[in-house]
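Supplementary material to the annual report.
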Amino acid sequence: MKQGGTTRDRMLASAVTLFRERGVDSTSFADVITHSQAPRGSIYHHFPGGKAQLAEEATRMAGELMSATIAANLEQREPGETLLTIVDGFRRQLLDSDFGASCPVAAAALAGGDFDAARTVAGGAFTSWETVIAAGLERRGLTPDRAASLATTAVATIEGAIMVAKAQRDVQALDRVGAELVRWVHAALAEVA
Amino acid sequence: MKQGGTTRDRMLASAVTLFRERGVDSTSFADVITHSQAPRGSIYHHFPGGKAQLAEEATRMAGELMSATIAANLEQREPGETLLTIVDGFRRQLLDSDFGASCPVAAAALAGGDFDAARTVAGGAFTSWETVIAAGLERRGLTPDRAASLATTAVATIEGAIMVAKAQRDVQALDRVGAELVRWVHAALAEVA
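Predicted assembly:
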């Protein structure tokens, strides 16, 4: 996540990075202050709703960034290639972080009871990724139902594979689901070609 | 998770239930004591390694239970039906818990830095589910490579869909991936029939 910008932006970017690495529950305000080099006391100035608000906004930022990335990618590539690009991005991130970094939106999705708002935002982020991917599949000729079903499955499969790969400290799960997703998207498109 | 048995068993079962609902990081020893009605002080008696040991053993228990369930199911049903049965189990659990309960092994997979051992056990649990499912697919005629790839994808897809459904408070993701997995397994088996 890019650093720089306002103190508030840096705090959000740091929250995304830390959620990715250790989850929402295990990230403290003090961690975010240290990581973003923000002045102590600035958390409640910028996030009067406390950590729940920080988690909610950081999750929204991460979700929207991914949504825009997927949309831009789908304009230039075949849907199967786009999915493979997303898989490769997470694959690289896991390797570069020694399997520390996973998806910050997933962290919010599984956060504990104090983070209902962040979890709701995570659900909305998944929906928005599904919608963007489904639209790309529809543009290639799939029916809305078929496109929606495949898009949801792609999002679930990639999120699950990130979790499996992180726990196994091995990117094999991502390699396998990447190949399967490409196969399935091609098969679905071949049916309507 | 069944209650009863020794104090130690009840504590493990309570830990699994609580991890499922609120994640590993947000579950305290006090929560486990209260939930299992175990005598205060019994945690360190039964789990001298503290919460890290409790998390590791609870994750192992949940992983092995699921592995045995999948294996038993695969002996009686077609692989696609078995996957649908697993999906339906999590679907019912999410609905019965008002979207509070997800997979306890996933909770360990994404736990913070203090739970390396539990995360490693979660990775091993995913591997064991993959192996059991792959063996079922091989018995139906798939090559080892094809069986392994589909099995990994099934595990990742179901785990991801549980997370998406929980965040969206809607089981639609599970319904969709259930149908897609059945379709893919049938297609793969048809190729070798």
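Chain B has a mean pLDDT of 93.
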